[in-house]
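[User]
If only I could read backbone structure tokens as easily as an amino acid sequence. I have put the entry right below:
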Amino acid sequence: LVNMMRSNRTLETLHIHLTTLEGGEDSHAMIAAALGDNSSIKRFSLFATAGKLTNRAHKAFAKMLERNYALEELEFQEEDEDLSPKIDTFLKLNAIGRGRLLQEAFVGREDWILRLGAVRDDLECLFHLLSLNPSLCQSEERYQMGGRKRKRSN
């Protein structure tokens, strides 16, 4: 399963239902690592009757999302349990195109501004995007000049 998740480049949705999870927390970490290597899966759910995800497993999925730009939906069997804020932030950023911003050779200021507008109600997402590209805080004129101040003429 883990090898298939790593190598498959066409699968977009994967729902896994397990009656037992051999390996416990290590299995969750292996699944998270495999998702980190996958660039096509956008929706993933994991349901196992073996019990809830531990804090360590949540951290493994959060770490995976730092490098996975494709995954937009992540669901576990705990319906009433919220995802960690870090996981939630990365999923939202992936859904608005974080991968495009970080992987394409040239992305214009307008593309960044559009993404900021899409997450304008989420401070974590706004902070993350601005930390990736602090020049967005400059005025457009200064941005076009490469951050240099223009001398005033008298």
Q: What stands out?
A: Residues 25-37 form the longest helix (13 residues).
